[in-house]
Design goal:
single chain, mainly alpha, Rhopdopsin 7-helix transmembrane proteins, globular
Length: 297
Amino acid sequence: MFPAIFIGLIILGIELIIGIIANGLIIVVNCSEWIRSRKLTGCDMILTSLGISRFFLQWTIFINSILFQLPEDMNKQCAMTKILKVVWIFLNTLNLWFATWLSVFYCVKIANFSQPLFLWLKQRISGLVPQLLMGSFLVSLVTCLPSVNAIGNTTGECQYKSDLSSSLFILSMLGFSSPFIIFIISSILLITSLWRHSKRMEKTTSSSRDTITEAHVRAIKGLISFIVFYISYFVALGIFLLDLFPITSYFVLLWSVIMGAYPSGHSVILILGNPKLKGVAVRALHYARCRLRDAVS
């Protein structure tokens, strides 16, 4: 089992490095713009909040995975494990909400529907972003409060189990399911709108038809990859909370690897799909390549 654990921790470490670089880039670029212009667009607010939450979430996943692999007679890490478990639940809920609002923002801004509610949201979504982010923070905080009581009341030696009661599990999954449902609905609406528009563009004779159609196809592919990451993370999260395997089992490490792939992989997709972030990333890679070449020579 040791080789599997070793390989799993290496993969988690790679995911952590990718996540730190990708989310760090998102945070630095948007914060620099905010310092320079004293304002951020609604999309950049969500991206910055998402990058910050994912930055800390990945560290929490990585540290938890290391603690879980320590021998069971090492009980000194019990207090830290309990604290990290509460932080992990909070960051998970917060991250899912932020990712959901990003999907909703894209859907409202890009999709074309004639329903009055949708048109109302299209005009006001940018102004609602600060309230949505703050509301997500408060909801995530309230959702993790029962876990503070349940985990804090654990007595005796440290047990390498989640020790989640059925009621706490149901409450946690309800907290995770609400943003998940909203995310799925907004993603389906956006993909449907983009697909219909692409089909309409294929029937026109405009010279820009191919370029616009290709852009829509790329957007659809990006959304589908976003959905795959999101769903895999949500499923792995549910299996982890069900506590079906011993906490030292390599299956738990497998779920950790799957969960760690989401905040790093999707952040890379966001950078590649954002011209501003992609430009900074390309310049940074070019600079790093030049420095490496100079160092070697």
